[in-house]
Amino acid sequence: MPSSPPADSPLPAGSEDGSRRRRWGLWITGGVGGTLVALYAVVTPFVTPALRRVCLPFVPATSAQIENVLKMLQGRRGSVVDIGSGDGRIVIAAAKRGFEAVGYELNPWLVWYSRYRAWRDGVHHKAKFYISDLWKVSFSRYTNVVVFGVPQMMPELEKKLREELECNARIIACRFPFPCWIPDHTTGEGIDTVWAYDLKHSGGFEARNLEITPERES
């Protein structure tokens, strides 16, 4: 009978090449798969709705929108809150102007990214970000409220802010105005338009016979 080759005899060159190709194939497949999973985990939270009651995907504020919001904050005092703060642009810009600024955002990835940006820009002591649903937060302690909303949410948000805010508050709406209130100030054009509503002057509130209710806890 023919003798078997020694156990330590080398494999044929073709077998070695095939084994090497299989190993490279597994590494490449694993690398590509891991990269796709990582991209999905990072990108998905940025494009999914940030507010669950309405379809409100994350759309970054433009430079013009930020400048228009800052115009509406000129001469104002007190704290600033951004409802649905996204990647923190408005909050950070307000903090750079000296405001104590807070952002509420339901998307944790955006909140963590906002905190990093605030730290990077050196305003983390004035810019705070919280993971929270806006409908579960009371805004009664804020005097300047910034809203980047969509038409579906504005009527209910109008009611909520009317009930919670003090009579010296200013509400700044971006992209879409409130349906019932008449703005005291307007600036910008198109998607960069910003509307400001002053409870102190009560222009829109009185015109609609709306009453300011006492502050309440959420």
Describe this protein with a few key phrases.
single chain; 218 residues; alpha/beta; seven-stranded mixed β-sheet; 7 strands; disordered C terminus; mitochondrion; membrane; protein-lysine N-methyltransferase activity; FAM173A/B
Give a brief outline of the structure.
The protein is α/β, with parallel strands linked by helices and 218 residues long.
Element layout with pairings:
Layout: H1 13-47, H2 63-73, E1 80-83, H3 89-96, E2 101-105, H4 108-120, E3 127-131, E4 144-148, H5 154-164, E5 170-174, E6 185-187, E7 194-198, H6 203-207
Parallel strand pairs: 1-2, 1-4, 2-3, 4-5
Antiparallel strand pairs: 5-7, 6-7
Describe the protein's architecture and organization.
This is ATP synthase subunit C lysine N-methyltransferase. The chain crosses the membrane at residues 24-43. InterPro entries: FAM173A/B, SAM-dependent_MTases_sf. The protein has 218 residues and is α/β, with parallel strands linked by helices. The chain has helices at 13-47, 63-73, 89-96, 108-120, 154-164, 203-207, and strands at 80-83, 101-105, 127-131, 144-148, 170-174, 185-187, 194-198. It has a seven-stranded mixed sheet with strand order 3-2-1-4-5-7-6, with helices on one face. Mean pLDDT is 78; it is low at 36-52 and 206-218.
**Taking Cα atoms only, what radius of gyration do you get, to the nearest Å?**
27 Å
Strand order of the largest sheet: 3-2-1-4-5-7-6
| Fraction of helical residues | 25-40%
Structural class: alpha/beta
